[in-house]
């Protein structure tokens, strides 16, 4: 039996930290690897040793097999855990590990290769009695053969890339006339993505759930399943919410699904952790879709319902030990649900968002598997997933409601993120009713629409929070508010800027006005939490004061809002020469002049790089750079003041 003393984790982010956690619990020496921009990343801080791989691009670092193998050799590792993504499903890498005398924590290279070939996988499953949809999976078939077979398969059908997965190179055909064009498109996409344009055909099941089964096998002939997960809620083939067990299955269906998955694993003599994905029809039929030969992102929901540590299971199998439990010793306890928090911009088609995490506090009452901590910089080199929030409950609805609360507690500013979107989906009536379908978001496009809070309500909350700050808190700038007491009542004018909206709140002891709307207000505070009532409106959340830059960040329902408490006058701001603020999160590249220098209108003053683009800020009027508030190399968040600039006296 092999022994693992030193484990190298060939990954980054939350999964590297997850594996390090179990490695340390088991008393192993853990070795992190990192690219240049990850030199101070959390996974590096937490491992016993850390080895540099190379420059930031993944192909030069986390995908660089030679560099990973050299790091393993130099650190004395006896095993490599690949995590997910990167080299985790690379058969050549698994082979190279074996050749170097290292244990690859994963299945045999042949299993990876077989399941990577979707046609071969489908054939093997069909031959082994695992249900598959009607289809045609003869490899290397030419266009004419495919077209003839398409009639036999029947419409609607899907054309899928043999080398595919994750929806790339996949095309639906609803009408026979569309077939030729769809085939050409699928082949083209597959050739570009995988360098392989072979395709297979399959009857299209348009309305179905994605239900997958966690399987495990050891080297002693034991194969078990750890029940199923429903991962139907996806956006562009990116999973967003996962849960276990899959809701609404009968005991018979759950049993049959588990048996089919175990059969699939046995059919390929599988070893280690794997996931068998099925399409689950509204009639309760299920069909093999693909098998993932790695630990998955969503494994924590299975851990929470079974009480097992799947990384520990993987390491047991890798050492040649038997599976920790037999099938009859495994049970489902309650329900678990996970949401994936991504650094992406819901206001801009969910494009990845990067930059420093200026403020971050994770919710405390759910499991958080995070890749980042406060102060870290989210780069655009890697997957934009920031963290997974995972809740357990006695039943599905309890887990769901705990996640909603967790998103309410989330305080994250810096990059844009999808927290509010996740909360909307969790609260959607169809989702709450477990009416699941892979097209849930297509059917409910309003969920993708950002629904920012009313700026007037946010402004009243901000004004009330400021007014509620005790006046005896030293040099508290809030006491500088413009206050006077006509007729013995305290009336305060609070000029604010809520994101892009300049607003003035007129606040007195019991009424608040914004523009022409006046209503009574009450505010309850508890630590940083607040609950505001303004007429029939209500806003609950928490607030973070930043005294130095006179900003208030309000976190509401997974979304954050920046409120400037002493905003510059609009006349100064609009194109004002004095407004050198970062237009987006990025890194300072160059300061073009020295502090104290006079500059002409149009002169370049400072350049920052964001999303791989450079942005130069120029003086719009002649003036003097009194000081730079940042230097080259600094990371800055959107809206940060960069330059102290004085416009020339007229
Ligand atoms: C399907 C299907 C319907 N019928 N196959 C999506 C990615 C790849 N894993 C296979 N996929 C699908 N295969 C047949 N015969 C629908 C999908 C599919 C899907 C599956 C799971 C979760 C989300 C999805 C979104 C679109 C399409």
From TrEMBL:
Start and end residues of each Lipoyl-binding domain: 571-646
Keyword Transmembrane: no
Domain ATP-grasp, residue spans: 122-319
SMART domains given in the database record: Biotin_carb_C
Top-rank taxon, per record: Bacteria
InterPro entries reported in the protein's UniProt record: ATP-grasp, BC-like_N, Biotin_carboxylase_complex, Biotin_carboxylation_dom, Biotin_COase_C, Biotin_lipoyl, CPAse_ATP-bd, MCC_alpha_BT
Biotin carboxylation domain: residues covered: 3-446
Required cofactor names: biotin
Keyword terms, alphabetized: ATP-binding, Biotin, Ligase, Nucleotide-binding
Protein name in UniProt: ATP-grasp domain-containing protein
Species lineage: Bacteria, Pseudomonadati, Pseudomonadota, Gammaproteobacteria, Oceanospirillales
């Amino acid at each position: 039996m092999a022994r693992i003393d030193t484990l190298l984790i060939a990954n980054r982010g939350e999964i590297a930290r997850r594996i390090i956690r179990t490695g340390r619990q088991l008393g192993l020496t853990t070795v992190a690897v990192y690219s240049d921009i990850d030199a101070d990343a959390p996974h590096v801080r937490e491992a016993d040793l850390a080895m540099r791989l190379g420059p930031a691009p993944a192909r030069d670092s986390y995908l660089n097999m030679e560099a990973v193998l050299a790091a393993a050799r130099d650190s004395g590792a006896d095993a490599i855990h690949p995590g997910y993504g990167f080299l985790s499903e690379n058969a050549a890498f698994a082979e190279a590990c074996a050749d170097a005398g290292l244990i690859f924590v994963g299945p045999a290279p042949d299993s990876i290769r077989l399941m990577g070939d979707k046609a071969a996988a489908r054939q093997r499953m069909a031959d082994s009695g695992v249900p598959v949809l009607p289809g045609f999976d003869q490899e290397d078939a030419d266009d004419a053969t495919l077209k003839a077979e398409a009639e036999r398969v029947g419409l609607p059908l899907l054309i899928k890339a043999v080398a595919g997965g994750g929806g790339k190179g996949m095309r639906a055909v609803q009408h026979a006339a569309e077939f030729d064009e769809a085939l050409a498109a699928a082949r083209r996409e597959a050739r570009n993505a995988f360098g392989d344009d072979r395709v297979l055909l399959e009857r299209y099941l348009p309305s179905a759930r994605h239900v997958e089964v966690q399987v495990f096998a050891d080297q002693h002939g034991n194969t078990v399943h750890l029940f199923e997960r429903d991962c139907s809620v996806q956006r562009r083939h990116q999973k967003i919410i996962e849960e276990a067990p899959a809701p609404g299955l009968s005991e018979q269906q759950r049993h049959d699904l588990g048996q089919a998955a175990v059969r699939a694993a046995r059919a390929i003599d599988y070893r280690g952790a794997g996931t068998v994905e099925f399409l689950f029809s509204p009639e309760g039929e299920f069909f093999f879709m693909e098998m993932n030969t790695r630990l998955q992102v969503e494994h924590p929901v299975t851990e929470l319902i079974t009480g097992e540590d799947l990384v520990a299971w993987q390491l047991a199998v890798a050492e040649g030990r038997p599976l920790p439990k037999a099938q009859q010793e495994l049970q489902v306890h309650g329900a678990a649900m996970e949401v994936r928090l991504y650094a992406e911009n819901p206001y801009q088609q969910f494009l990845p968002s990067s930059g420093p995490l200026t403020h971050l506090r994770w919710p405390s009452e759910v499991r958080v598997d995070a890749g980042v901590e406060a102060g870290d910089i989210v780069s655009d080199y890697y997957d934009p997933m920031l963290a997974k929030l995972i809740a357990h409950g006695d039943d599905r609805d309890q887990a769901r409601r705990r996640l909603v609360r967790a998103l309410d507690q989330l305080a994250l500013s810096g990059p844009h993120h999808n927290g509010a979107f996740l909360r909307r989906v969790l609260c959607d009536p169809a989702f709450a009713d477990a009416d699941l379908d892979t097209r849930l978001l297509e059917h409910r496009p309003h969920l993708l629409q950002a629904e920012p809070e009313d700026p007037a309500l946010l402004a009243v909350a901000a004004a009330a929070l400021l007014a509620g700050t005790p006046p005896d808190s030293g040099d508290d700038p809030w006491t500088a508010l413009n206050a006077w007491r006509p007729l013995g009542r305290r009336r305060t004018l609070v000029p604010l800027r809520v994101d892009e909206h300049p607003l003035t709140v007129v606040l007195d002891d019991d009424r608040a006005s914004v523009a022409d709307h006046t209503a009574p207000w009450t505010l309850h505070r508890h630590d940083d939490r607040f609950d505001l009532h303004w007429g029939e409106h209500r806003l609950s959340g928490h607030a973070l004061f930043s005294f130095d830059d006179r900003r208030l960040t309000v976190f509401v329902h997974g979304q954050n809002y920046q409120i400037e408490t002493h905003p510059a006058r609009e006349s100064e701001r609009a194109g004002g020469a004095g407004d050198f603020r970062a237009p987006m999160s990025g890194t300072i590249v160059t300061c073009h002049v020295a502090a104290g220098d006079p500059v002409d209108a149009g002169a370049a003053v400072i350049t920052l790089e964001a999303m791989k683009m450079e942005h130069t800020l120029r003086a719009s009027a002649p003036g003097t750079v009194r000081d730079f508030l940042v230097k080259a190399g600094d990371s800055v968040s959107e809206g940060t003041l960069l330059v102290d600039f004085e416009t020339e006296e007229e």
